[in-house]
Amino acid sequence: MHDVQAELTIVFNGEIYNYIELREELKLKGYSFTSESDTEVILGAYREWNIDCLSHLNGMFAFSIYDGRSKDLFVARDRVGEKPLFYIQERGVLRFASELKSLMADPSFSRRLDLEGLDCYLAMGFVPGDRCILQGVHKLPPAHALLYNIESKQSRVWQYWNLPDFYSSGSGEHIDEVHLLNELENLFEDSVSRQLIADVPVGVLLSGGIDSSLVTAMAVRSSSKVKTFTIRFPGFGSYDETKHARLIADYFSTEHIELDAVDATVDLLPMLAHQFDEPVVDSSMIPTYLVSKLIRQHCTVALGGDGGDELFGGYNHYSRLLWMHQKFSKIPQVVRSSIARSAEFLLPYGYKGRNWLQGLDVNLKSGLPLIASYYDRRVRSQLMSRFSSWRLIAEDVREQRIPATTDLLQRATRMDFRNYLAEDILVKVDRSSMLNSLELRSPFLDYRLIEFAFSKVPSYLKATPTSQKVLLKNLTARLLPAEFERNRKQGFSIPLSSWLQGGSWKDFFHEILMSPENVLFDKRIIKKLFEGELKGRANSERLFALVLFELWRREYNILI
Fold it and tell me: Containing domain of residue 533, as a range?
């Protein structure tokens, strides 16, 4: 879109949730608008506040504005990283796109694998920050902006927003929990209300868990006709959340639709490998895609509960970390390190609890163990034995990203917010939904709610050694039916381990990883992973990581 003076041009992906208020504010300053579009409001905000317009925007976005007056190109990404942006800057040229495949469409681009990016992928399940799995490419990190002058060819990248520090006026202060709960309720209601605004049908993805149930509770306050959707996987009862979702839907009298995901076949993997640009180690991309596909038949915008775990301490590993710190902090470091090394060398890969035992080597006063490690240093060296120049850098990269705070839970939740949420969860949601032309919105990721959670909510109201989401559960007691199961925790996943015991999934994985074709990884290690999986060890997601990478590498003809 061009502005009326034809001096500014914008390309924009996303949604601005406060554009109506911004438009009215700009009108009072003398601006006029020719459309009802949030895109035009961004142009007006840039003309008024220049690059500081970012502090006025509430939404998910990646956009670029070319200013014909200054010859500057201004590129920015939203605070959390809901919308992607890749770029290449070399030989005086800047190329950028929402999709890596767009950059690969350039015939001059070499498509060469970045081995350091691959090392991060194998260790963490994603490539973090501004790194990319392809050489020469960068991701613009969340809450960052880039300014590039067309004439001078000079550029700079900066961070325009960060998580606030936790505010504490002193030790022993009284926390008014009722006041916190009231503020949370008001902020969340406003966020949901804003994100329900659309000129197309909007639904709520209702799993029956805490987060999506609270989204539903707030949605019915803003709309008399709320559609809720629940997905079930026939034949896998432990993954069926129908009755929990139905309880919430009945309580709030929503128009509830139950959908069956019946086509979770291995044929989906090549398509997802193509769609995801950079591979991500998360097999729940499959149900996320299927959910998006089914919901798209009924609406074009849907609200979900992503972000609630990171903001309010919802993951089980937060309680385990606190318990471990409580139980093991007084054991001498040399003893804990000895246990960790013994676990690494004596316990078979995929053995339950192996990663946690290895984590004993970490000082929990300042560090964080990599519990969700897919391949540790020793196994990565074996897996990539064909590369004499292979560098094990993932642990160092991760170490640099650990927040500097003495509070263990603050450290863990901030780490997950910057890494797992931004680089895995939101990537999965964006790519899977966009493949179905469905826009998934996340009310928990309103930046005001994020700042509230990290600056005002003390750790004991998030998680303890025995519970999670303490403050959110207090909100459920206020808003949800009495029979709601507050302590139930069901991740959004598929029975991949069961599928790999035999049948088409096992055959496909073997075909990709053990075929005579040029597989990047050491087949002796792959064989051990398969053998361990058959013995009941937790290797399914590790095998998924290798299969998805190989499918992606072959799809795009990536050079080594």
Answer: 496-560
Distance CA 1, CA 38 (A): 11
- For the full predicted model, state whether its pTM sits above 0.90: yes
pLDDT confidence of 35, banded at 50, 70, 90? very high
Distances, alpha carbon 353 to alpha carbons 296, 377, 408, 535, in Å: 40, 17, 20, 16
What number of other Cβ atoms are within 10 A of residue 552's Cβ?
Answer: 22
Rounded (10°) CA dihedral 176, 180, 181, 187? 160
Please identify which residue in the block is written with the tokens 């074709």.
517
Mind listing the pLDDT tens digit for each residue in 421-445? 999 999 999 999 999 999 999 999 9
Lookup: tokens for 545: 């990581």
Residue in 210, 417, 223 with CA at minimum distance from that of residue 304: 210
**548, 273 contact by CB (below 8 A):** yes
Domain membership of residue 234 (yes or no) is: yes
- Same domain? 26 vs 109: yes
pLDDT digits (tens, 9 = 90+) for 54-98: 999 999 999 999 999 999 999 999 999 999 999 999 888 999 999
Identify whether 417 is part of a domain.
yes
Instruction: Examine residue 367 and state whether it is found in any structural domain, yes or no.
Output: no
Helix axes 470-479, 177-195, angle to 10 degrees: 70
Dig out the tokens for 342 from the structure.
């013994």
Residues 97 and 184 in one domain: no
Residue 341 lies inside a defined structural domain of this protein = no
How many domains is the chain built from? 3
E-strand ranges in 408-534 read 439-441, 463-464, 467-468
